[in-house]
Amino acid sequence: MIMVTGGAGFIGANFILDWIAAEGTAVLNLDKLTYAGNLGNLASLTNDSRHIFVRGDINDRPLVGRLLAEHKPRAIVHFAAESHVDRSIHGPDEFIQTNLLGTFNLLEEVRSYWNGLAQEAHSAFRFLHISTDEVYGSLNADDAPFREDTPYAPNSPYSASKAGSDHLVRAYHHTYELPTLTTHCSNNYGPYQFPEKLIALVVHNALAGKALPVYGKGLNVRDWLYVGDHCSSLRSVLARGRAGETYNIGGNNELTNIEVVRMICGELDRLRPRASGTYADLISFVTDRPGHDLRYAIDATKINRELGWRPQETFATGLAKTVRWYLDHAEWVRDVTSGAYRNWVEQNYLSRGNT
Q1: Catalytic residue among 133, 166, 223, 293
Q2: How many domains is the chain built from?
Q3: Residue 181: which CATH number?
C-alpha cells in the first residue's frame, strides 16, 4: 500500500486512478476535501477495495500517526496543497497553513513512523513530495529553462509557501536521512481539473457563452504537461528515483496564454460549433494580476537521462483529449461549479474589467 495526501484533487485523483490501473496495489487517500477536493473524481473506485478514503487534514498529527500505524504504507505521495496563485494573492494564510505547516506536521509523523520500521521496510520506504516549477521564479524570453539546480526565487505567496515546503523536505533528508524525493512539474491540464485554472476555465466559460478572461496581453509563457504524463513520471520517480534527489518534469510545450486560449477555441469550434461566430469572439483581455511571472520552462534532461521518462502527449493531442473529456462530462462540471465558485470568478476576474 501507498499513502496519498490530497488524493481527491485534480492531480492527486488522476494519480490514484493511474496508479491502481497501472500498479494494481492499494492506496490510502487522505484529503481534507476543500473546495477543489471532489470525491466525484474517484467515483469509478467507489466499490474498489484498493481505494481507502479518509477525510482529514495533514495538520492533524494524531490522525496521520494513527493512519500510518494502522495501514503501514511503503511510500507517501504528498500532493496536498493550496495551489492557485490568484487565491494566494487574495488570501495567503491558508497557503502557509497547508503548504508549509501541513508539510512540516506530515514530515514529523512520517519520520516517527519510518524510524520504527523493520530494516527491509525502512530501507525501501520513500517520501515523494510534489512541488512546482514556480518556486524558481520567472524567466525572460531568452533565458535557459529551469534546471534542478536553478536558484529559488518565488514571486507569489503560493510559490513561496511551496518553496518553504521544498526546503523542509530537503532538510529532513539531510538532517534525519529520511528517504525523500521531490519533483517540480510544469503547468498540468487534463480531466477533473477544477475550472479556476486557465484551460478548464476557458472550456467552461466558452461552453456557457461567457467571456474568456486573459490576463494582460496574454503573452505569459507556460510549459504545459498533460496530467496523464505527469502521473507516469511520478511512478517512475517513486520506482527508480534516487533518495534525496529532485527531478524536474515538463511537457516540452511552451506556449503563450493567448495561444493556448485560441487553440481551445479552435478545438471547440471543431467539436461543438457555436450557432454564430467562433469561440474566439468571447476572448476578453483583463487587468494583469500582481507580480505575474513572465515565463516558466522546464529542462527535463535529468529525468529523461536517469529514469528514461518522456511525455507521450503533445499539447495538441493532450488538449484534444481534455476538451473532449469536458464535453463528455457536463454533469461533473455542473456539480463543481457551485455558488462559491461563481463568487470566486466574480471576485478574481469580473472585478478586474476589460483592458
Answers
A1: 133
A2: 1
A3: 3.40.50.720
